[in-house]
Design a protein that fits this description.
VC0802-like, 143 residues, 5 helices, seven-stranded antiparallel sheet, alpha+beta, 2 domains
């Protein structure tokens, strides 16, 4: 149920994102999801790739400061209110969402939501009780 996400710290200047993309592409690392958050001076690129450990090594070798974080992948209905339902369950359980991002699933009628939460196991339990599926990495890959 946990998915490994790589966070890459980047200077907030032109070409940084392109350079990371090139490093991953040159090493045959395919992106499954990505999110970018920025401040005036730096940004945090968050990516989900099939081989997080391999990508971490490749990025560190290229000189990037990065780390792996455990996040949850959740299957949501690809319809109005799909995300709101998940967030309501977490709110009702007293779980804080540090950040989230979503993308369309390969499975028709569904989307995937990546969540970084305050309490991972409590979140898994709350979602299971609400019959909301958490996903393994192979499901994000469409396998």
């Amino acid at each position: 149920m946990r998915v490994k996400q790589i966070s890459v710290f980047l200077e907030n200047k032109s070409g940084q994102l392109a350079d990371v993309g090139a490093v991953l592409a040159e090493n045959n690392m395919n992106l499954r999801a990505l999110s970018i958050a920025d401040t005036k001076d730096y940004g945090i690129l968050r990516v989900i790739v099939p081989d997080a450990d391999g990508a971490l090594e490749v990025l560190r070798t290229a000189g990037y400061t990065c780390k792996i974080t455990d996040v949850l992948a959740v299957e949501i209905d690809d319809s109005p209110g799909g995300m709101a339902r998940v967030l309501a369950v977490l709110s009702d359980a007293g779980i804080s969402v540090e950040y989230a991002y979503a993308f369309i699933s390969h499975k028709a009628g569904y989307a995937h939501m990546i969540l970084r939460v305050s309490e991972l196991e409590k979140t898994v339990d709350a979602l299971a009780k609400a019959q909301i599926r958490t996903l393994e990495m192979n499901e994000l890959l469409g396998k």
